[in-house]
Amino acid sequence: MRRLSYGDDVTLPPRQAESARATDVHDAALSLFAERGYHGTSMKDVAEAVGMRAPSLYNHIRTKQALLQATMLYTSRAVMSEFDAAVSGVADPVERLRRAVRAYALRHARHGREALVVNRELSALEDPVRTEVLMLRRAHQKAIQEVIEEGRRTGHFDIGSPGLASFAILEMAVSVGRWFKPERGLRPEEVADQYALFALRLVGRAP
Amino acid sequence: MRRLSYGDDVTLPPRQAESARATDVHDAALSLFAERGYHGTSMKDVAEAVGMRAPSLYNHIRTKQALLQATMLYTSRAVMSEFDAAVSGVADPVERLRRAVRAYALRHARHGREALVVNRELSALEDPVRTEVLMLRRAHQKAIQEVIEEGRRTGHFDIGSPGLASFAILEMAVSVGRWFKPERGLRPEEVADQYALFALRLVGRAP
DNA sequence: CCTACCGATCGGTAGG
DNA sequence: CCTACCGATCGGTAGG
How far apart are the C-alpha atoms of B20 and B60, rounded to whole Å? Predict the structure, then answer.
C-alpha cells in the first residue's frame, strides 16, 4: 500500500514504506487515469509523465493493474473510515447526516482524481480487489441509508424512500470531484457545508 | 444520424434511414461502451455481440469513433430539446424546475446506457463533436441555473448559490442511470417524480 | 534506468 | 459477410 498524499484527513493502518520514485509513478498514473481513463492510458504515457522510459516503470511497480488497485482500495477504505470518524459519538440523526455528508463531499473536493477513478473504473478493476471495493461502497451506502432511516423513525426527517435519498445524496457529493477547482475561490470546506445542507433539505429535515 | 430506439420521448429533426443491421451494431456498441468503456471495448467485442467478424462491421459503420459520436450527439441534443419541451409555456418557477428535473431524471431512468456513456466518455470523444457536446451540456446546466435564479428572484426559492445547486441537481439525476433497473418494481416516472421533489427541496422551495 | 525485444491485440483495409 | 493481412501500439521481460 502506498502514500497517496491524503494529508491528515484519513486514519488508516500504516502502509509500507515506498520510494519517492514509486510515489511519483502512482501519482502520475492517478492523474492520467482520472483524465483519460484506465484503458485510455498507456504505460508509455505514465512513463513520459515522470520522465522515464516505459520499461523502467517496472523497477518501481508491479503491473498497470496494481496501480489501479492501490488507488481504488486505499480510497474506498478511507471513505469508510472517514465516515466512522465523522459520526462516531454523535447521536442526533440530523448531526450524523450532516457530518457524514460533509466528510464525503470534503473528500471529493480534496481528492477529485481519486473520486473520478473510483467511480468510473470499477469495470477495469480485477478481482479480488474489485469485490472488496464493491463491498466497501455498498457498506457506505447502507450506512448512510441507516442514518436516514433512524432520522425518519425519530421524526427528524420526512422522507419516503431512504434508499433513493441515500443514492441521490451520495452521487451528488461524488460529483463535486468532477467540477471542483480550488483556484475558483471556493474552499473545500464551504462546498462540503453546502452539500451537507442540501442533503438535510433533501431528506425533509423537520424545522 | 441514427435510430436509437428513443421511442416517443424526444423530438429531433428527422434522421437518415439506416439498415436494421446498422442499428444492431450501434446498439451493441452502446451496451458495451456503457459496460466496459469506449477504450475497454474492441471492435471484435462489438462484432461478437452481433454475431459477425470484426471486419464485417465496416460494411455498416464508418469507424469506432463514429459509433461513439452518434450516441453522444444524439443524446446531448435530446436532453436540450426535452428541456425546452418540458418548460415551454410554463411561467411558475416551481413548476418549471419540477418539469425540467423530471424530464432529465426520466431520460436517465429510461436510457441508462446513454447516460453512462455521455457522462464518462467525453475524454474519448474527438472534435468537433466533443466541442458541440460540451456546449450542449453547458447550455443545459445554465438553463437549469437560470430557472433557479428566477425562482430566487421571485421569492419561490431560498438558495445561496444557484450554480452549486444546479450542479448538485443535475448530477443527482444523472446517477439514476447508474442504478435504475425497471425490474425492481419501480417505474421510471415514479423515480423522476421523486427526484423532482428532491430538487425542489434542495433549492429551499418556499412552502 | 536504458535498449532491444516479446507475443498479443488494436482499428481498419483489400479483395473477393 | 468472409479470410487474409496491414502497421501501430499494447503491457511486460531480458539482460545489462
Answer: 10
The shortest CB-CB distance from A123 to any of B37, B160, B198 is to B37
**Which of B62, B54, B55, B53 minimizes the C-alpha distance to B22?**
B62
Number of neighbours of residue A7 by Cβ within 10 angstroms: 8
Average pLDDT over residues B100-128: 96
Nearest residue of chain A to residue B166 (CA atoms): A172
Fill in the amino acid letter for B76: S
* Residue A16: predicted pLDDT: 57
Instruction: Measure A78 CA to nearest chain B CA, in Å.
Output: 22
CA of A22 to C1' of D14 (A): 22
> Are the beta carbons of B151 and B181 closer than 8 angstroms?
no
Residue B72: name the closest of B143, B11, B109, B127 by CA. Answer: B127
Q: What is the mean pLDDT of residues A63-70?
A: 97
* Closest alpha carbon to A65 in A78, A46, A81: A46
> Which string of DSSP letters, residue by residue, matches A164-191?
HHHHHHHHHHHTHHHH--GGGS--HHHH
Confidence of residue B12 (pLDDT cuts 50, 70, 90): low
Give the number of C-alpha atoms closer than 13 A to the C-alpha of residue A14, restricted to the C-beta side.
2
Does any CB of chain A come closer than 8 Å to the CB of residue B62? no
Is the C-beta of residue A24 closer than 7 Å to nucleic acid chain C? no
What is this structure's pTM? 0.90
First to last CA, chain B: 45
| B64-87 helix and B20-36 helix, angle to the nearest 10 degrees | 90
Count the alpha carbons within 13 Å of B8 in the hemisphere toward its beta carbon. Answer: 0
In terms of Cβ atoms closer than 10 Å to its own Cβ (0-12, 13-18, 19+), residue B13 is exposed
Lowest mean pLDDT among A17-26, A122-131, B7-16, B159-168: B7-16
